[in-house]
Task: structure prediction
Amino acid sequence: MTPTARTATVGPVARALQCTAAATAVALSSALVLGVQAGRADEAPATASAALVQASSSHHGAPPAAVTGDGPQTASPADGPPAPGAEAHDHGDLEVTVMLGADGTTEVLGPVRSGAFISFVNHTPTDQVLSTSDGALVVEVPLRRLVTVQVPDAADTYELVSSTDPTVSADLVVTSSDALPR
Amino acid sequence: MTTFKRTLALAAALTVTAMPLAAPAMASTSGTTDLSASLTQLNDSGVTADVTGSVDGNEVTIEITPNGLLADAPHAQHIHIGGTNSCPSPDQEGSGADGALQVTDAAGSYGAIAVSLTTEGDSSADSGLAVDRFPVGDASYSRTLEVSDEVAAQIAAGDGVVVIHGVDLDGSGAYDGDVMSDLDPSLPEEATNPAACGTLDVASMAMPGGGVDTGVGGTAGDSSLTYVVGGAALAAAGAAGVVLLRRRTAQDS
Result:
């Protein structure tokens, strides 16, 4: 058998397909090599993730002490100097609609939609009960609780005052659902 | 069978064999990666949730249908990335009351907050405790969020873990109790303890006609393995085809 004989037997279309098959084999072999390299590359993020966990552990790693005291706990993990990698495990500051502050001030995030659920946190020294003068809205806000209530459907400004400490108050503005951008 | 027919048959066989390998490549070049997760309970919460979504460039779309969450209470929910990109064992105990699993107890499994699945406004990790911007009770959730290139790539690689928080450990119907949260000491742990967790897997692609599952789902490691094994098999098939063709061509001559 000679190369000339083979050329005479195999037609041009079949030869083209053979060449295509050979090229495919080469391409797939290259893909195999790239796949192996990609697999090695995937190991790098895993290592980075492990480092992240280690860094995160340094931020929150030690089991937090259970807080069972009677007084309000106002310290936040964000208050201290951040540990290395703390940014990577950031959860932000606590954000609730009404925060009764330890210094007697009350922070209200802003207007809320009618019928919305809003939350209260009490940082004052004692339990509080906030209510409007007409009793349309009454919210008990004990210490160490996350209190969530549904605001009335009626759009209005609800002036909430504590029955135990009149200096603790909050003006809650309830608007129609269409009035606030989402 | 003529040489031409044999060649055609081999080429067809090679093409069919190559399709499973080509499918993930086609998926990755289409620009959209589909996601899914099935969340199961932590802290004996009884909570489950189905999650679907997608990643398209920097946009991540997430839809969550939960079941069993404490009613009329907000439930923080996040995509976590890091650790082993996995969920802790459902029966894993932690540093909370009576061994309750707190958020950071499982950080080694699901890592840190990458995306806060808020209902409005900011969705970065900074909003991880934006209590009133999370869904209430079993409300369904659907939102498209913009994330960084890095986070989008990690989620598309199957590294995301969805965690829903808020467990009524004592059955009081509210977030209370004497043990406070490991995230913010002014909150009871019930408000932040994880209630359900599930890995945000890259959705598998079914081949047309319901034939072959390409097995794209799972972690980045699984995906790489698919490429390596598929590439090896196809390279071998291609080489075998060439050798066989040449042998038969020689016999014909």
Summary: The mean pLDDT of chain A is 68. The radius of gyration of chain A is 33 Å.
